[in-house]
Amino acid sequence: MSSQGLRVCPACGERLQHDWQRTVLIGGVIAVGIVVGVIVGPWLFRTVRDFRPEVVVSTVQAVVTRVPTAMLKVVDVPSLTPSLTPSITPTPTNTPTTTPTPSLTPTPTLTPTPTPTDTPTLTPTPTDTPTRAYPTWTATPKTTPTATPTPAPTAAPPIPLEPEDGAPFEGARAIVKLGWQSSHTLKPDECYLITLRWTEQGAPASNQVCEQNTSWFVPEALYLRADQETERVYFWTVQVVRQGTDSGGQTVYVPLGPASEEWSFYWK
What we know:
Blueprint: H1 20-49, H2 53-66, H3 69-74, E1 159-162, E2 167-169, E3 177-181, E4 190-200, E5 203-211, E6 215-217, E7 233-245, E8 251-255, E9 263-267
């Protein structure tokens, strides 16, 4: 075989002829391919489009059922279960129910029953009865009480010194000393009246002591007498007084001046 580009045979020198049969054969193959594509193409497209697996499965199972039992023992044909596409159950549509319009029944009009009118009863007019007038007597006291004159204050109020106002103390053995100063010189029947007050079981309580000195120690017996709700607080004042007795023999104190400023302390 020589190349198609040669015109003369290199061996013998004769003129070469072209192989036209190859060209015709190639062109025929191409034409047949085009014709087959035009004819077979649409059919193959429809076949693929209309392919249904469930139909093929049903056909295969039908064929298998017709095969004799002896052949089934030789050939093991698997059973194919078609997968069916679930069908959609339509949802029922609620139809609105028309509500009947109630008919109005007219209410009968009640006829009022007349109420009988009571006949007024005549009341006799009372007759005035004369009343006897009695004189009014006003009691006159036999004697007019005479007020006892109160001596005018002559002493200045004492000044508290200790403990500091609001000072705290702890325990029953704490030494609570109240001290003050005064410019007044006491006479034999005069003293400093110390008034100590607190709240005990919700009620006010107090204690008074008369001293000639300018200090006083609070006794241990008063420890925890003040209520815990008040934080065990005690208040105290000092006042210059004159000591005496009344007609019943009881001791009385006549103030000679105003009381001092009230101070406090806590004894817990």
